[in-house]
Amino acid sequence: MFADDIPSPPNCLHAVFVRSPYAHARIGAIDSAAAFALPGVAAVLTGHDLAAHVSTQRMAPAVDGLQPMDMPVLPLDAVRFVGDPVAIILAETSLAATDAAELVDIAWEVLPAISSVDAASAPQAILVDPMVPGNRVSFQSFATPGLEAAFARADRVVEARFGQQRQTHVPMEPRSGLAIWDNGRQHLTMQFGTQAPHPYRTAVAARLGLKEWQVTVDSPEMGGGFGQKIIPLREDLCLAAAARLLRRPVRWRETRGENLTAGLQAREEMVTTQAAVTTDGRILGLTCAIDADFGAWSFFPANYMARVIAMILPGPYRFKEYGYNVAVWLTNKCPSGPMRAPMAITSWVMDGTMDAIAQALGLDALEVRRRNSLTPDDIPWITATGERYDSLTPLATLEAAAKQLGYAALRLEQVDRDSSERLLGIGLCTVVESNTYSSAFYRDAGIPGSGHETASIRIEPSGAIIASCGLMSSGQGYETTLAQTAAAGLGAAVGDIQVQIGNSDTAPYGMGSRGARGASAGGGALYMAGLKLKAKLLAIAAAMLDLNSPDSLDMREGLILRQVAGVWQESGLSLEQVARTAHLDPLRLPPGIEPGLHQILAYDPAATTYTNSTHACAVEIDRATGAIRILRYVAAEDCGTRINPMIVEGQTHGATAMGLSGALLEHAAYGADGQALAGSFMDYAIARADDLPAFELLHHDRPSPSNPAGIKGMSEGGTMGGIGALLNAVNDALAQVGARLDAQPATPARIWAALRQAQSAEEGTVLRR
Ligand code: MCN
C-alpha cells in the first residue's frame, strides 16, 4: 500500500505544482485567472498566498564557515532552478489540476544562471542566494600539526583527481501523499512516506505553527526512500497548508519527471588528493580538497555531506597526518540532500589514491594496500580526525576478497593475455562505512536531531507483543529484523511479535531511518528494552513459582525455563500466563513490581559506528566500443552480529547495485544555461538487472564491543564499495594503454573517448619521434 494506493477521502482535492522552466528568473506578475476559470479548479496558491501560513525556513546552525540561508515555502521573488515550484493548483481531479497548471501565466524575467562550481566561484559571479557571498555556502578546513613535516619527509607526492556527477534517488514511488485537515479537532494528518516520522512531524508542526499533538504523521509503505524521504520538503508543506486553508483533504502524486529534476539530488563532488609517500608505497600524510556543487536551496546544512567525506577519508589506512579543505558552492540546480551513502565517493577517492600510488611507484596495488592497512594490532584506532574504530577488520576483508576474486591469477592473466581487443582490469576497494552517527556528530554537523533511538515493547494480557521504535522502513525489512532483535532480548518467539512503526502517534519519538542506524540504534534499543522487560517477566514468574529470586529462570521462545542441577527444564509457565498475571492479577505480583508490561527505552550510542568491507571486481573493456563487462564481483564484509543474514545480503546487493548504477550510467545532467537535461528515464539511465553482475558475498563478522547486541550498520557501504571497485577496475584496465577516467559515470562513450585520447597522444609521440 504505497501512498498513491490510499483511497481518496471524500471531498479530496488533487494538487499539481506549477514549476519554473528557467534555471534562474525573477517572478513577475502571476496571472492565474484562466487556470482558476477551468472547471473543477478550487484554488491557485502562490508563495505570497502561503507565506502567512507556513513560516520561512532559516538554515543557520552554529557551524564554523557555514553561511545562513533562508527559504520560504515557495519562492517569492525569484526561482533558482528548473523545477523550482512557484504555485500549487488544487482541483477536483488531477487532470483538471494538470490542465490548469499550464494556464498559469507568469511574467518571467530570465536571469543568467550558474551551472557549475567553476561558474559559481568565478570572480564577479552573479549570486544564487543574495545572502551567500561568492556563492560559497560552506568552507571547512582541517590539518594535523605534523602534516607539513610529513610532506617534507616524503620521497614522492602523488596527486589524483576524482569527479562524481549529480545523481538522484529514484524511489519506485515518487514523493506522493495526502494531507487531511480535521477542522473540528484542529488536527492535521500527513500520509506521506517518511523515513523519520517524528522529526517530520516536528518540522511540519513548527512550520505551520501547530503543536505536535495537532499533527499525526502516518507513513505508508514507501517503495524506496534512499534519503529523499526524511524531512518534509516544500511540496508536503504546501499540501498541509492548502488542506488547512481550504478545509479539504488534498493529495499529490509526484510525476517521475518532477522526482528526477526537483526532488532532491546529490553526489556532485570534485576531489583532489595529494599523498606524501615513501618509495615503498607507505603513506606519511594525505591532503584532500573537495568542491561540492550543492544546488540552489538549503534543505539540509550545506556542510554536512561533503564534511562526512573529509571526516572519514583515511578509512582503513594507518597514516595519522591529514588535512582537508571542503568548499560547498551554490548553483542554479536542484538542491542537494542526503542520498544513500552521502559520502559515496569516499572509498573510491581513498582506494583510487592507493592505485595512483601503486602506479606512480611501479608497485602492486594489493601490496600497497597491505602495507598501509590497519592490522588487528592497531585496533582500537583513533583516526586523524578523531574518529574511533572499535573493531574494524580491514586487512581481513581485503585478503578474503582478493583471494575469492583470484587476484594473483588475474594479475598473471593480465600480463599474458592478448589485449588487442579487450583490456582486463582488476579493482579493489576497502570501505570504512560510518554509520549510526552519534549525538556529537549531529551537533557538530548542525543537523537537528541526535543519535539516539527509542524503543517500546508492550505485552498485552494475552501475551501478544507489540514492538515499536521511531524508524520507518523504506524497504529494509524492519518488520522482520526489529522483531528479531526484540525477540532476542526478550526471549520470545519472533512470530509472536508484531512490529508497529511509521505512525507518530503510536511509535515512540525516535530519530528515524537514516545513516544506516536501523539495526544498531533501533535494533540495539529494542534488544535492550527486551532484556529489561524479560527481567520483569522473570521476577513475576519467580513469584508465581514460589521462588525467592528469578536467578534460576530464563525465557526462551516464550517459555519460562528453570535451571535445576545445571539443566534447563520447562517450568510449566509461559509468557502468556505471566502476561495475564502482570495485567489482570496484580495482587500476585512481588513487592515493588508495577502492574502491566510496557518498556520504553532510549539508546544513545556513545560514538559513531564504523563497519568495514572490501569490494573487488574484474572487468573487461572492449577497446573498439568502450563497453564494460563485469566478469566477477566479490564483497567481503564485517558488520558485526548479523540480525538477519538474508536481509544483510539483500541490502548489500541493493547498495552495491546503487553504487554501480551511479558509477556506470546515472547522470542528472544540466546544460551550460542551467537547463535540466535528464527529466525522464530516457535521459536518466539506471542500471537494469542485465547491467549488473552476480554478487559473491563473504562475511567476516566481528561483533562490535560498543553495541549491546554487537551490531554494526551496513546498508550504505555497498554503494561506496561498488563505485570504488568498479572505477578502480576500469582505470586498472585503461592504465595499460595510458588512459584514465577521472570522472564518473564510466559510460562506454566516455571510456571510448579516454581510449581515443590516449591513442592520439601515443600517435603524436610516435610522429614526433
Ligand atoms: N541488518 C542486520 N544485521 C546487521 C546490520 C543490518 O540484519 N548487522 C539489517 C537491519 O536490521 C535492517 C537492514 O539490515 O533491516 C539495514 O540495516 P542498517 O544498515 O542498520 O540500515 P538502516 O536500517 O538504518 O537503513 C537505512 C539505510 C539507508 S541510510 C538508506 S538511504 C536505505 C537503506 O538503508 N534506503 C533504502 N536501504 C534501503 N533499502 C531499500 N530497499 N530501500 C531504501 O530506500
Automatic annotation (TrEMBL):
**Domain Aldehyde oxidase/xanthine dehydrogenase a/b hammerhead as annotated: residue spans:** 2-112
Q: Name one Pfam family in it.
A: MoCoBD_1
For whether the record's keyword set contains Nucleotidyltransferase, the answer is no
Would you say which domain of life the source belongs to?
Answer: Bacteria
Q: Which UniProt keywords apply?
A: Molybdenum, Oxidoreductase
Q: Which SMART domains does this one have?
A: Ald_Xan_dh_C
- Reply yes or no: does the keyword DNA damage apply: no
Kindly give the InterPro entries that the UniProt entry links to this protein: Ald_Oxase/Xan_DH_a/b, Ald_Oxase/Xan_DH_a/b_sf, Ald_Oxase/xanthine_DH-like, AldOxase/xan_DH_MoCoBD1, AldOxase/xan_DH_MoCoBD2, AldOxase/xan_DH_Mopterin-bd_sf
PANTHER family registered for this protein in UniProt? ALDEHYDE OXIDASE 1-RELATED (PTHR11908:SF132), XANTHINE DEHYDROGENASE (PTHR11908)
The name of this protein is Xanthine dehydrogenase family protein molybdopterin-binding subunit
The species this protein was found in: Belnapia arida
Q: What is the lineage of its organism?
A: Bacteria, Pseudomonadati, Pseudomonadota, Alphaproteobacteria, Acetobacterales
